[in-house]
Amino acid sequence: MSIETLPEQTQINSASTFDKDSFDQNVMSTYGRFPIALERGSGSQVWDTQGKEYLDFVAGIATCTLGHAHPSLITAVTKQIQKLHHVSNLYYIPEQGELARWLVEHSCADRAFFCNSGAEANEAAIKLARKYSHTVLEIEKPIILTANASFHGRTLATITATGQPKYQKNFNPLVPGFHYIPYNDIEALEAAIGELDEGDYRVGAIMLEPLQGEGGVNPGNRAYFQRVRQICDEIGILLIFDEVQVGMGRTGKLWGYENLGVEPDVFTSAKGLGGGIPIGAMMSKKFCDVLQPGEHASTFGGNPFVCGVAMAVCQTIERENLLSNVTARGEQLRSGLQAIAAKYPQQIIDVRGWGLINGMELSPDITLNAIDIVKAAMEEGLLLVPAGSKVVRFVPPLIVTEADVDRALQILSQVMASVMEDC
Ligand SMILES: *Cc1c(COP(=O)(O)O)cnc(C)c1O
């Protein structure tokens, strides 16, 4: 099929049948799923198999940067699959080089490594930090400090890095070499570095999210991060930022760290990078030669298909000036959420976020949880996702329009009125 004969989005409008029982019988039950099946999308809208329309403020959890069925995405996917979709990293891949160049030109990074997901990008960063600790810092048993309430992925090393026991339960023995500190607490960080400097143990790196996504939409504190940067420079250890959720424009800046006035030594990206195509990247400023040929690899990592598509995402962010849209829509959304929160001061205790990653926190003193609001909103045609038990998270596509945000706020205020009546 050539690009010219691609089916029009509007032609795919018939609701199809979906066999939930068959799905549940054949797919492992690793996810708690909502009982709807989504089958098509356009912009910030998605439709389920019943033909019901939803406003998508989940976007594949902060992933569908350009929303659904964006013309640039369709063109890039079609072009690349017709040309070449996969070859091994045994050979040079021009698309990988071009994407790396764009990332290097648009960040503090000097070079990039490509993989397939956020967890894998963090694994690569952890391996880099381990090797640097051994070979340069000469630490026998290097420790990476990570934060309480952090989230870094679901592999064994990254659930260990994740400072939330609920993700680790029953998966022990965990990977040694991680230690948790409270987020945004400089005294606790300094104390941990002191305490851990004993025998063969020493801190070799600190890994943090510029804003904690899964952990409850907790923005990093500027003064804290600036002091963390100073400490890392003073003692020569690596500062790693997990930009998987907040990178690629979600905060209104291309990278989360730009909100903090601090640059990392190593950072990772995934979710928004490919606009929904599976890709991850680990990037570094200065420490690009730590991992040598044969020391890290990925079969799919950086193949022509994902890199060609991710490049189109990057170019579209620039061409459509999406960062300013993110800032404007983010302000619109937050002020609307604050207006809703003002109606329920006992129940909603905070509204916070950067750009288009925002959270609305419910009081610990009420029985109502984030999931209750998410379910009620879904009924009314608005998709939302919790971030922990008490925070409702709003992460729409970066192409979301003013009318979309107004509509989402209108639905949410109706939903709040009805759930508050019940609780
Ligand atoms: C989602 C997420 C990850 C894990 O990414 P996967 O692609 O699911 O492996 C890691 N870190 C952060 C901050 C995330 O939000």
Automatic annotation (TrEMBL):
Q: Which gene encodes it?
A: argD
Q: What is the lineage of its organism?
A: Bacteria, Bacillati, Cyanobacteriota, Cyanophyceae, Nostocales
Q: Any idea which positions bind N(2)-acetyl-L-ornithine? A: 154, 298
Q: Which reaction does it catalyse?
A: N(2)-acetyl-L-ornithine + 2-oxoglutarate = N-acetyl-L-glutamate 5-semialdehyde + L-glutamate
Which annotated residues bind pyridoxal 5'-phosphate? 118-119, 151, 242-245, 299
Q: InterPro entries, alphabetically?
A: AcOrn/SuccOrn_fam, Aminotrans_3, Aminotrans_3_PPA_site, Class-III_PLP-dep_AT, PyrdxlP-dep_Trfase, PyrdxlP-dep_Trfase_major, PyrdxlP-dep_Trfase_small
Q: Which family does it belong to?
A: Belongs to the class-III pyridoxal-phosphate-dependent aminotransferase family. ArgD subfamily.
Residues bearing the modification N6-(pyridoxal phosphate)lysine: 271
Organism of derivation: Mastigocoleus testarum BC008
Q: What else is known?
A: May also have succinyldiaminopimelate aminotransferase activity, thus carrying out the corresponding step in lysine biosynthesis.
| EC number of the protein | 2.6.1.11
Q: Where in the cell is it found?
A: Cytoplasm
Name this protein carries in UniProt: Acetylornithine aminotransferase
Primary subcellular site in the record, as a coarse category: cytoplasm
